[in-house]
Amino acid sequence: MPEPTTPEPVPAELRALAADADALAERTAEMAARLQAADDDHVQRLAQPMSKATDDLAGYTGEIARTAEYLTRVRVSRDPHLCDVPWGICPVHGVTLHSLGDRARCTAPGCGNTWNYDRLHTPCAEPAAAIATDRDGVTGSLCSAHASDAARRLDGCSIEYLDHRAANS
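RE: above sequence
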């Protein structure tokens, strides 16, 4: 594998690692099949731990691939034109997400929004629509859903919408 160019891995490095793990899982499965096909019972018994190793490697491959997806989302969220909040939100209903494993869904009645990743625990990647300033003077760029939530929940918070039409949505 090439020498990393940054201290933080890039998603492509993780995808390459997942491909390597997948290739190793395939080779391990081939060895398990060859052990199982042997004439000797003692050798055949060795197929079981090899099959377990194959399953374990497949799980690791999935975890590495999911990490690459999440890393991509985290890196995208650093775009200065996106919301600064380090957790996700339903762009329609606000703070209504429920997360289970690698999936998230909006819990607002009648909302069918779902995501095939843990949106709740992933930085928000919605476009910035407002600048929020808390009572201590700390500012941040927020999407319209996070801005609306901040205005309701944070005492002394002021919201300045970047596009005044967004304030009415």
